[in-house]
Write a structure and sequence with these properties.
The protein is mostly helical. Among the domains are: 166 residues, 3-Layer(aba) Sandwich (Rossmann fold), CATH 3.40.50.300; 56 residues, no CATH class; 94 residues, Serine Threonine Protein Phosphatase 5, Tetratricopeptide repeat, CATH 1.25.40; 189 residues, Serine Threonine Protein Phosphatase 5, Tetratricopeptide repeat (Alpha Horseshoe), CATH 1.25.40; 55 residues, Winged helix-like DNA-binding domain superfamily/Winged helix DNA-binding domain (Arc Repressor Mutant, subunit A), CATH 1.10.10. 62% of the residues lie in helices and 4% in strands. The chain is built from 48 helices and eight strands. The strands form two sheets. Strands 2-3-4-1-5 form a five-stranded parallel sheet, with helices on both faces. Strands 6-8-7 form a three-stranded antiparallel sheet. Strand 7 and strand 8 form a beta hairpin. Helix 11 packs parallel to helix 13, helix 28 packs parallel to helix 30 and helix 34 runs antiparallel to helix 35. The longest helix has 19 residues. Keywords: DNA-binding, Transcription, Transcription regulation. It comes from Solirubrobacter pauli. This is LuxR family maltose regulon positive regulatory protein. GO terms for molecular function: DNA binding.
């Protein structure tokens, strides 16, 4: 909460109106700059019994993540977000999670045990549509224990009209804040001035009661030889006040103070030590305190009197004069500010001032020294904007700036731009002396790692990662935890796409531990999703995919539902559900992944999404729809970076979809260009075509005498089925039984049943029935597969639909019902009150049309809302796939 300026006076008529506002949900204090809005509220709310969370806003706070982070921090500092509460777990929204943040915030505020007043100061700075939409949602659904106080120079574009019509909005406007003659007299007396009624009346009329004008007049009247002449000449309008600030405030200051003001006004906020760094003097803290005591339009902004800021109008006037008077010295001052911020571990501010100072070498050094901290910070976009503001040829001739821009290009999926910047970076680094080249090593290595990650070049990624994880020469300490987390996550992801699943498991597990320990929640979520994806590819649906549920649970607690970081977790669960013949959960996760991936800028995930969507369409009898999914993917990445494995995978799936549509010629045209890639997926696609063309012997020749190595169960199972079908067509029942038994063994272990459904049209059912008649360890599994084939891979039992869709929170509560946890224990797991859990349960029972918990579990399983596990909470997958047999 801001400190009050010197010379504050009591204004009972206004404090009484604010008190009346405590009985209504919203109070609006709206008036021009300098009207005393902030001072009025700040002098009144400390006496309220409610907790007060004060949010001071600036023009740079328009990004939703930054805006709501400030709000959540203010609530935490007010003491209304105890550890473990839903409010404490909530985090500022990320990208596409903006739409779900406001409801989660409303729910969290509704659970507060005591009332709170949430004050938004300088709300006129917030103009972004997402922030205003979320704030509007909060206002409309405001919990009863929360009061909003909105302070701004103009009325915010929020739905206040309903409150106004219903009399539930208390308003204090500029005309209300204008000082009366009695209040003006009290203000002047507080400044040590004793003017007669005539001069007070004249001054009040000239300023129209404007607080800033009256305070300026008070400053000018101190020691003035002729108060009457001063009042006669003084005008309180904005332009005249600006002229007055120069002529009667700045120019009347002693030269040392005037010099101090001109040099420190370049900063948004200033403390004594920073002021000393700019002025070269040693009295910065004393000067700031003296200016604040004299009410010289400078106010403390941290509650401790260490950091100060200038009044907006005064700062604008001062900066204009500073550029006119100081000239090139302004750049020197910016450079000093950059050095001070860099030395005090505030690299983002240091970079901003280095760029404004046009000190390109300093900017590059700041980025080189702090790149990992800047790259993983919530304000990375602002950092990139500062780097992008560096002009050519500096950007391309400095290796660290070019390397940073390469990382940014890779994050937005622009491989062409990334290669250009990386080439610039490596060319510039090669020309540097050895002692200078080392400082740029980490940034260039990160850019090379990111490039290798995008292109699936695991060995190159490994080299870059080893360089990044090595102890920095000459520093005598290990790389930071943030660096280790980021590097291991990127390396593990690359290993997964390169099908180095053991390395992926190792690196991603270590990345998760590092990210959890560093508070890097976004990285922790995406790494868990990548780990789940690697596991489902390597081990099928029966793999331990709790890490995906953990990722989504963490995202839900933070309010980041369907944020970009959740994309890989949704895709992993979609693939697991598809391979286990659970189409509806697959579709649901694909829909969530589509929202998340729109801003994920991870091309490989986009391929996985399109590939899985196309597979789902094909298995549901819509091959043309699947072909369109692949065409759309290709269109999105025309001219971009795609892996060879992705292009081959798309061609193989396209051939199989053409076969499903009865287009043999199109299937042949799709597969022929990739036949030189003798990978299992190519062999499977070619064997499918050979069987469709009536050539079972050629199908067997496609696979060769020895099994092509593949670490993924899916193509191995597919090969076994196709070999069994081919042997059957060649009347070799023994060979068919052996091949099918191998496929069944792997299917039973991994839970991967989809290939049996996909190939049901090639007389597979007869083979499975033959397998039952012969001695087999997979008798139960085969029975289950035959049931799937009878239902075309889906549960065909007619089930009445849910009366009304469950909310996100109700679905989370539902997952705990199969456990032995009591309502109180479920509440503890979810950071809810027991009453809130009971409310959710009543709604769940109503929507499922059941009477008690056991019926709800049975009904939810019928509807595939939960799986068959007895522990389906967030720590174990709710759509767990149990192998048949």
């Amino acid at each position: 909460m801001p400190r009050l300026p010197a010379g504050m006076v009591d204004r009972p008529r206004l404090t009484a109106r604010l008190e009346r506002g405590r009985a209504e949900p919203v109070t609006l204090v709206c008036a021009p700059a300098g009207s005393g809005k902030t001072s009025l509220v700040a002098s009144t709310v400390p006496a309220w019994p409610e907790r007060v969370a004060w949010v001071s806003l600036e023009p740079s706070d328009n990004a939703p993540e930054r805006f709501w982070n400030i709000v959540l921090v203010a609530l935490e500092r007010a003491g209304v977000a105890p550890p473990g509460s839903a409010l404490a777990e909530l985090a500022a929204p990320l990208d596409r999670s903006e739409g779900v943040f406001a409801p989660l915030l409303v729910n969290a505020l509704a659970e507060l045990p005591e009332p709170v007043a949430l004050v938004f100061d300088d709300l006129q700075y917030i103009r972004s549509r997402p922030c205003l939409a979320q704030l509007s949602s909060l206002l409309v659904h405001l919990p009863g224990a929360v009061r909003l106080v909105l302070i701004g120079r103009s009325e915010p574009p929020l739905p206040l009209h309903r409150l106004r019509l219903s009399g539930r909005l208390v308003e204090i406007r500029g005309r209300d804040l204008a000082f009366t003659e009695d209040e003006a007299a009290a203000l002047l007396q507080a400044h040590g001035l004793d003017l007669g009624p005539k001069l007070i009346r004249a001054l009040r009329l000239r300023t129209e009661g404007w607080s800033a004008g009256l305070r300026l007049a008070a400053l000018g009247l101190r020691g003035h030889a002729d108060p009457e002449a001063f009042v006669t000449q003084f005008a309180g309008d904005d332009r005249t006040v600006a002229d007055y600030l120069l002529a009667e405030v700045l120019d009347q200051q002693p030269p040392p103070v005037r010099s101090f003001l001109l040099r420190t006004c370049l900063l948004d906020t200033v403390c004594g030590e920073l002021a000393d760094a700019l002025t070269g003097a040693g009295d910065g803290a004393d000067t700031l305190a003296a200016l604040e005591r004299s009410n010289a339009f400078i106010t403390p902004c941290d509650g401790r009197g260490e950091w100060y800021r200038f009044h907006t109008l005064f700062a604008r006037v001062l900066r204009t004069r500073a550029h006119a008077v100081l000239g090139d010295e302004v750049r020197t001052l910016r450079r000093r500010a950059a050095d001070w911020y860099a030395a005090h571990a505030r690299p983002a501010e240091a970079l901003k001032h280095a760029v404004l100072a046009e000190a390109w070498e300093v900017a590059a050094a700041i980025v080189a020294t702090n790149w990992f901290e800047l790259y993983t910070s919530p304000y990375a976009a602002e950092v990139i904007a500062s780097i992008a503001a560096v002009p050519e040829p500096w950007r391309s001739q400095d290796p660290v700036l070019a390397g940073a821009l390469a990382c940014a290009a890779l994050d937005r999926g622009d491989g062409t731009d990334a290669h250009r910047h990386l080439a610039d970076a490596e060319r510039a680094a090669a020309s540097l002396p050895d002692d200078h080249r080392e400082r740029y090593r980490a940034t260039l290595a990160l850019a090379r790692l990111a490039t290798a990650r995008m292109e699936g070049r695991y060995e190159t990624a490994l080299e870059a990662a080893d360089e990044l994880l090595a102890e920095p020469p000459g520093r005598g300490r290990e790389p930071s935890r943030e660096r280790r987390a980021l590097v291991r996550a990127r390396l593990g992801e690359t290993a997964a796409w390169a099908e180095r699943f053991d390395r992926a498991e190792e690196q991603l597990s270590r990345a998760i531990a590092e990210a959890d320990g560093s508070g890097l929640d976004q990285l922790a979520i995406s790494a868990r999703g990548d780990l789940a994806y690697a596991r489902v590819l390597a081990g099928g649906p029966a793999s331990d995919l709790r890490c995906a549920d953990d990722a989504l649970a963490l995202a839900a607690r933070r309010g980041w539902v369907n944020a970009s970081a959740t994309a890989s977790a949704h895709i992993a669960l979609a693939v697991a559900a598809l391979d286990a013949c659970r189409d509806e959960p697959c579709r649901a996760h694909l829909d969530n992944a589509t929202v998340a991936i729109a801003v994920a800028r991870r091309p490989h995930l986009d391929f996985a999404l399109a590939h899985t969507r196309a597979r789902l369409a094909g298995t549901r009898g819509h091959p043309v729809e699947g072909l369109r999914e692949l065409e759309d993917w290709e269109a999105r990445h025309t001219g971009g970076s795609t892996l060879v494995s992705e292009r081959v995978g798309a061609s193989c799936l396209r051939a199989r979809l053409h076969l499903l549509a009865g287009r043999l010629d199109d299937a042949r045209a799709a597969i022929d260009p990739v036949l030189h890639h003798t990978t299992p997926i190519v062999q499977v696609a070619e064997a499918c075509l050979q069987l469709a063309e009536g050539r079972p012997a050629r199908a067997l020749e496609t696979f060769g005498a020895h099994h092509q190595h593949d670490v993924r169960p899916l193509p191995v199972i597919e090969r076994g089925i196709l070999e069994a079908v081919a042997h059957r067509q060649l009347n070799d029942a023994g060979a068919a039984r052996v091949a099918l038994d191998q496929a069944l063994t792997l299917s039973a272990r991994t839970g991967c049943c989809r290939p049996f459904v996909d190939f049901a049209g090639v007389h597979l059912e007869g083979l499975l029935r033959d397998q039952i008649r012969a001695p087999t360890p997979h008798h139960k599994h085969v029975i289950g597969l035959l049931g799937l084939l009878a239902g075309n891979g889906r549960d065909t039992t007619p089930v009445a639909p849910v009366l009304e869709p469950l909310s996100d929170r109700e679905q989370v509560v539902l997952r705990y019902l199969p456990t032995n946890l009591s309502n109180r224990e479920i509440a503890g797991e979810l950071f809810l009150t027991t009453n809130t859990v009971k409310t959710h349960l009543r709604s769940i029972y109503r929507k499922l049309n059941v009477g008690h918990r056991g019926e709800a579990v049975a009904r939810a399983r019928e509807l595939h809302l939960i799986g068959g596990s007895s522990h389906p909470g967030p720590r174990e997958r709710s759509d767990r796939v149990t192998p048949i047999g």
